[in-house]
Design brief:
Low-confidence stretches: 1-5
Number of helices: 12
Strand order of the largest sheet: 1-2-6-3-7-18
Oligomer: single chain
Distance between the termini: 12 Å
Largest sheet: 6 strands, mixed
Mean pLDDT: 93
Structural class: alpha+beta
Shape: globular
Helix content: 25-40%
Radius of gyration: 23 Å
Length: 446
């Protein structure tokens, strides 16, 4: 694919603004709510360069800001660029620095590093996108296609007051959109072997679905001194053990197959098998192998148990909850297997959010590859399957194909995925500056 020459921007100002905006957003504490000040800040910074957004607060404090940056090709489908403004809790005494101070510290391995809740998940991208749009507007650059810039609330709790609410109540704001870019991907990982240093930038082209199962066993309550075979605690215990011990077979989705084929070729490793040999090869890849391995099969994990109140009373009911992560196309299979493994006498209540899958190749993927190559000629963009969920699942209900790509070039061994929700969440400033340059190129040429 040929990409139009990228106009010269004031890269120094772009990078400076990206860092400053990320720090401003981190300092707005948005744990479990209170996104309104952050959404308004984003709206103000965009309005300063003539990109005026729509603000909505579907519940007190749960602010969302959506703005459209018109492109030069009205026939092209719009691209949604989205970031959530809420963050997970941070226990300050566990951190090396205050989690909402946005401090920059010197690190002997990684240089200047920005600490703060949201540095990677995902105020880092939110601030970068705003800085990139400001840089394009200052330079008079009109993007190829309309950009729908969405800064939303509540992603960490499922999007009820954010992306889900917008899709259900403000779908017109996404009119004409065909693709979306958000979390989780774009960060670099080392590619071992091959005789030269290379980096792979992971592109999430698919996401596992999520299933929640509530298992209930009922029986006759009674005194524990007179045990019966009709004990719901025992039935639930057997069901939970069966689910814990079960391993689903390997399923090579389009995204996982593409990653394994490309990574195997780059590293010279044999990633073609499905058994213990593949697991051993993935183990040799460190945290990269962990990410990919989580996308090889369905998983069902018991997470909650509840039964009884006194040791000498057989309860009338025992309950367990399980969390399932489901590969594309596997929703019915997983639910049937949970019911089968739970066994006789255990009722299963089930609800789920379906998986998503977007094409692993196409014009947008070509743009992402070209944008990375322009700043990192040794970098290669590889598709993968995200074993978690993002707001792309809500946008998929509007027929929008979602990708996870928030570009960061990080030092080898810096596990960006491992910083999500972690103590001392942080990102090197060099990675943010790289992300600002690449993001500006993507927005202009996508």
């Amino acid at each position: 694919m040929s990409v139009q020459p990228f106009p010269e921007l004031d890269h120094a100002l772009l990078e400076e603004e990206a860092v400053d905006l990320v720090r401003e957003l981190i300092r707005i504490e948005t744990v479990g709510g209170g996104e309104a000040p952050a959404a308004r800040l984003v709206g103000e910074r965009l309005a300063e360069v003539g990109v005026v957004g729509e603000y909505v607060e579907p519940a007190p404090g749960r602010g969302n800001l959506v703005a459209r940056f018109p492109g030069r090709d009205p026939a092209a489908g719009a691209l949604v660029v989205h970031a959530h403004l809420d963050v997970v809790p941070a226990v300050a005494p566990d951190w090396s620095v205050p989690p909402f101070a946005a401090e920059v510290c010197d690190d002997p391995e990684h240089g200047e590093v920005l600490y703060g809740r949201g540095a990677v998940d995902m105020k880092g991208f939110a601030g970068t996108v705003v800085a990139a749009v400001r840089a394009l507007r200052r330079a008079g650059v009109v993007p190829r296609r309309d950009l729908v810039l969405a800064f939303v609330a509540d992603e960490e709790a499922g999007g009820r007051w954010g992306a889900q609410w917008l899709v259900e109540n403000r779908a017109a704001w996404f009119a004409g959109a065909t693709e979306a870019i958000g979390e989780v991907g774009g960060f670099s990982v080392p590619v071992p072997g091959g005789g030269r240093v290379r980096r792979a930038y992971l592109l999430a082209t698919a996401e596992k679905g999520v299933g929640w199962g509530i298992l209930r066993a009922r029986g006759a309550a009674g005194h524990a001194s007179r045990p019966t075979r009709d004990n719901p605690v025992a039935r639930i215990a057997r069901a939970v053990t069966a689910l814990h011990d079960h391993e689903f077979p390997v399923r090579r989705t389009e995204a996982t197959a593409a990653f394994l084929a490309a990574f195997g070729e780059l590293t010279g490793r044999d990633l073609s098998g499905d058994g213990p040999g593949l697991r051993r090869e993935l183990d040799r890849l460190g945290f990269v192998g962990d990410i990919v391995g989580a996308g090889l099969r369905h998983t069902v994990t018991p997470t909650v148990l509840a039964a009884g109140e006194k040791a000498n009373v057989i309860p009338g009911e025992a309950v367990a909850e399980v969390d399932a992560r489901i590969l594309p196309g596997g929703e019915d299979e997983v639910e049937r297997e949970v019911v089968r493994l739970a066994g006789e006498g255990v009722a299963v209540e089930w609800k789920s959010m379906p998986p998503t899958a977007a094409p692993v190749d196409g014009p947008l993927v070509d743009v992402l590859r070209a944008a990375v190559a322009a700043d990192d000629p040794a970098g290669v963009v590889l598709p993968y399957l995200l074993p978690a969920s993002t707001d792309n699942k809500h946008l998929a209900r509007l027929g929008i194909a979602g990708y996870g790509f928030t570009p960061l070039r990080v030092p080898d061994g810096f596990d960006v995925f491992g910083r999500f929700h972690a103590v001392d969440e942080r990102v090197p400033l060099s990675a943010l500056r790289f992300g600002a340059r690449v993001t500006a190129r993507i927005l202009a040429t996508a």
